[in-house]
Design goal:
Helices cover 58% and strands 2% of the residues. The protein is mostly helical.
Length: 308
């Protein structure tokens, strides 16, 4: 069984012909559910929804509608190219009649793009609904989406945008796609920059009681990480790599920022440099030398020279 189990329900999510058989749609619906819906909902929650398709419970019914409105366009996308041709004893063929002719490749691609846009937008709405009603769906905690490790300095998309000062339209999907990049920056750059000792001292910046200096430091670390992630994501090389991938996946959008029309440098990179300098300044004010250079201005450390 799938979350969409008849043609009438499918027609509520996408525009299809009245004579399309559900047997034709079913393989695409099942695959779309496994590929795109299951990672975000989790198998236990999907099993609950499948078992309660006709349930009148308000929250279950609401979530089911959100899931179906995402699933339908995803299935439509998977079916777009394959269902536009037939396959039989004569190989691959297309249907042509006196009244109907195959749509052009351009029109088919535009329809597919429209379905993809709606699918991801509906997925975002589904995740927002689940965020707002977590207590009603404890099974959600077992989904891959919920089990993914979270970064240290951002727990949610809202925090990333508010504290990191990078506009992602508070998108949960965008934040989820950036999580591994954010965690890599935290581990590969931030720890070395602030020293492992300071990183351990900060601990969980959202639950630990921090000193005023540590608060200032964290407030510089967060926009540094966000700017670095945005700079890498919007770089020319990254955009080329994404365009060549050819995979059906959510593509987070962060618009490149430029200081002016004569400067082709990415403004996010400049912002990362700015916040890095602020971090170093704050560490210096805290008496921490993150450069590893030796200091000789204490009673315990003296420099002897033999001149003669």
């Amino acid at each position: 069984m799938a979350l969409i189990n008849n043609t009438d329900t499918f027609k509520q999510t996408v525009k299809i012909g009245k004579n399309v058989l559900f047997e034709v749609l079913s393989p695409f619906i099942k695959d779309a559910q496994r590929f795109y819906i299951e990672p975000y909902l989790g198998r236990p929650l999907i099993a609950r929804l499948e078992a309660e398709l006709a349930d009148s419970e308000t929250k279950v019914a609401e979530l089911l509608v959100y899931a179906q409105r995402a699933l339908g366009p995803f299935a439509y996308m998977l079916a777009t190219h394959e269902s536009s041709i037939g396959f039989g004893d004569s190989g691959h063929t297309v249907t042509r009649t006196d009244h109907l002719a195959p749509a052009s490749d351009a029109k088919v691609e535009r329809a597919r793009e429209s379905a993809e846009f709606r699918a991801w937008q509906n997925m975002e709405a589904m995740l927002q609904f689940l965020d707002e009603n977590q207590t009603s769906f404890p099974e959600w905690e077992q989904s891959r989406y919920r089990r993914n490790p979270r970064p240290k300095y951002f727990r949610t998309a809202v925090e990333f945008q508010l504290l990191g000062m990078v506009d992602i339209n508070n998108s949960r999907l965008t934040f989820e796609k950036l999580i591994e990049l954010i965690r890599r920056i935290e581990r590969a750059e931030v720890i070395d920059l602030i020293t492992p000792e300071v990183d351990l001292q900060i601990g969980d910046p959202f639950t630990n009681i921090l000193s005023n200096s540590e608060v200032v430091l964290v407030q510089s670390i967060q926009p540094y990480i966000a700017a670095r992630a945005a700079a890498l994501h919007t770089s020319q090389t990254t955009r080329l790599q994404r365009s060549r991938a050819g995979e059906l996946e959510y593509r987070p959008v962060i618009r490149p920022l430029y200081e002016d029309t004569t400067d082709t440098g990415n403004y996010y990179s400049q912002q990362a440099d700015y916040w890095k300098a602020k971090i170093i300044k704050t560490l210096s004010d805290m008496g921490i030398d993150q450069t590893g250079a030796l200091k000789w201005n204490t009673d315990e450390k003296k420099l002897f020279c033999d001149i003669g």
